């Protein structure tokens, strides 16, 4: 399962394809952009249609392809001005020398050149041409003009060309172009979240996954926690503008985009890193980890050999990480989790007080449809008494949606007037 926020919702890309052999790569580019979650509309110049048909792009983009400037039928659907407004990015790939020249002088004699003048969206061009045409003084002059006009030029790759030449002029691979576009929107999204997000300016530390308590060099005690809830929360906190540190026990999950991850194994290591995070400055501490309550009193230096019918291993109590952090003088806003099989509310409320938490989210792990290994969860959230906030029922939803609602609950509590104790 991936928590990468690579899917950018509701962003519109107008992909303009001009005449060049690299136009075949643009078909794959449409696929990659769609995979990343973009809405794509394709504009083709006349030259492009000599290399590849509009039908291909229509099928791949799921939208009609725009080819004419003054076609009454097309204008009745989405006219060029509407298309110019619809675009969050105008990406011209491949961009021929002819198109670059038209852009540079401001010609408006076809749909694309008109669109270029009519749009307020950023414009990216990915020139692709014969290496000699790329090097030509006029092309370079036009490119300089476009850069001065604020156009982003994606440099062509060097290599063997369809015409047999070797040199600069190849359009970068579709995967590479799609990645650059995605990163651009991520950065823009991040800049907004850092300024206006619900957790903007906060450092959130999250413990996640199980801990592993060694018995000997090859064996350990652990549990079935997958870390999904903690990883979803890390992604949601990052999306809300926070700086996020994820202290992860052994799990097989990808690190969410933008999140700093520190891997640990045992509860003692998890506590050690958690305390270090307090020194770094931590505003919100979220304990989702299923920390082993006990560890082996004396870890054997060598593999324990089979002998006799019984083996006794003595266990000692592990530190309670969340409770230890909550006791510190400069404590962050503390969020705990409780997994219960009965008396949900009573036990959760008890833990909230006993561990001195600000908020606790509890779920019923006796339900087979939610919890540990599941992709879904349902929770009840309680706030410490001084917040005087009603408990919240978070109905069954994906762990991502639950994480989003938990971020909202944290935000609301942080902005709530606290009754003096
Ligand atoms: O006491 P219990 O294990 O049910 O408490 C659960 C909450 O306490 C969770 O937030 C869990 O991450 C945290 N915890 C901890 N250190 C422990 C045990 C639990 O931080 N040793």
From TrEMBL:
Keyword Lyase: yes
Coiled coil: none
Catalytic reactions of this protein: (R)-4'-phosphopantothenate + L-cysteine + CTP = N-[(R)-4-phosphopantothenoyl]-L-cysteine + CMP + diphosphate + H(+); N-[(R)-4-phosphopantothenoyl]-L-cysteine + H(+) = (R)-4'-phosphopantetheine + CO2
Cross-referenced InterPro entries: CoaB-like_sf, CoaBC, DNA/pantothenate-metab_flavo_C, Flavin_trans-like, Flavoprotein
Protein task: Catalyzes two steps in the biosynthesis of coenzyme A. In the first step cysteine is conjugated to 4'-phosphopantothenate to form 4-phosphopantothenoylcysteine, in the latter compound is decarboxylated to form 4'-phosphopantotheine. Catalyzes two sequential steps in the biosynthesis of coenzyme A. In the first step cysteine is conjugated to 4'-phosphopantothenate to form 4-phosphopantothenoylcysteine. In the second step the latter compound is decarboxylated to form 4'-phosphopantotheine.
GO MF: FMN binding; metal ion binding; phosphopantothenate--cysteine ligase activity; phosphopantothenoylcysteine decarboxylase activity
Cofactor(s) it depends on: Mg(2+); FMN
Domain DNA/pantothenate metabolism flavoprotein C-terminal: 199-412
GO terms of biological process kind: coenzyme A biosynthetic process; pantothenate catabolic process
Active site per database record: 163
Family statement drawn from the similarity comment of this UniProt entry: In the N-terminal section; belongs to the HFCD (homo-oligomeric flavin containing Cys decarboxylase) superfamily.
Gene symbol of the encoding locus: coaBC
Residues where CTP binds: 293, 303, 319-322, 337, 351, 355
Pfam families: DFP (PF04127), Flavoprotein (PF02441)
Species lineage: Bacteria, Pseudomonadati, Pseudomonadota, Gammaproteobacteria, Moraxellales
Manner of cofactor binding, per the entry note: Binds 1 FMN per subunit.
EC number: 4.1.1.36, 6.3.2.5
Region feature (Phosphopantothenoylcysteine decarboxylase): 1-203
Pathway: Cofactor biosynthesis; coenzyme A biosynthesis; CoA from (R)-pantothenate: step 2/5; Cofactor biosynthesis; coenzyme A biosynthesis; CoA from (R)-pantothenate: step 3/5
Protein name per its UniProtKB record: Coenzyme A biosynthesis bifunctional protein CoaBC
